[in-house]
Amino acid sequence: MVILGLAGDTMLGRLVGERLAADGPRSLVAPEVVAVAHEADLFLLNLECCISDRGEPWPAPGKPFFFRAPPAAVEVLDLLGVDCVTLANNHALDFGPAALLDTFTHLARAGIAWVGAGPDVARAHAPVSVDACGYRLIVVAATDHPADFAADVERPGVAWVDLRHRAPAWLLDTVRSAASDIAASSIPGGVLVTPHWGPNMVADPVPHVRRAARALRDAGATLVAGHSAHVFQGVDGTVLYDLGDFLDDYATNPLLRNDLGLLFLVELDQLGPKRLHAVPLALDFCRTRLASGDDAAWIADRFRRACSAFGTAVHIDEDRLVINWR
Fold first, then answer.
1. Is the N or the C terminus of the chain less surrounded, counting Cβ atoms within 10 Å?
2. What is d(CA 228, CA 309) in angstroms, rounded to the nearest whole number?
3. Phi/psi of residue 252, each to 5°?
4. Mean pLDDT across the stretch 153-180?
């Protein structure tokens, strides 16, 4: 068995980057959160920024936010024990191709794999494989926004997909091929698809996201773990529609409470996902800690209701929210 750790949107730029420069990586994540992250044999998150000290803001009319983290951001990822990040999102190219290429360099030097972006479209679309405890996980990533970030034959960018009507053939073929590779291997493994999909600040997955999730699962995805909404959503079978936020300096929505989140630990074996543990988090300004008291109770109530909408039962085991698939 292997434990896969999953965290949502992780933004290490702007004021988070300033705190990192002033106080170091341990100032951003409480020791108790680091300890939970280290329970994972493999750990993946959505890196919602580039890592560079170069580049110019992307010239898109009306684009309001630009996220660029300093090179020291890799120290935060190393502290958490991150094995792989997805860059398929709407901030990877915030400071242009040069900053995205720098991101690849900084991650590679730190020994961290990435998926969902590349110096050309072939690399951006390509899955990556990460291994631990005799288990092979093939990771596939894509984003449904923005189209102008899409990689091309000779242009760095992200793995962009149009999901409004149906998942594109290349994405489903990639998942099928990865599933076939796992099935043909003598080593236990699975396929994780991690899409950046749907609108921001919505409590439930929109219809086209639900359709895409079914298609990805039917194509052979062992687990689907999405992000983009900035708030966690429900679990439908082996689909985690949205992982929510993990670390940022964002303003708080008083109703959706994007300052309250979850860190997910998924137990996987040769038969697939076995159990999920969701650990409640509180996102303070530029720092993430474990949630407690009323905050933890609010998270538990909303997660249970969100999962109940899909017929998924959530049990409380001490300070964790548990889903048993088997």
1. C
2. 20
3. -95, 130
4. 97
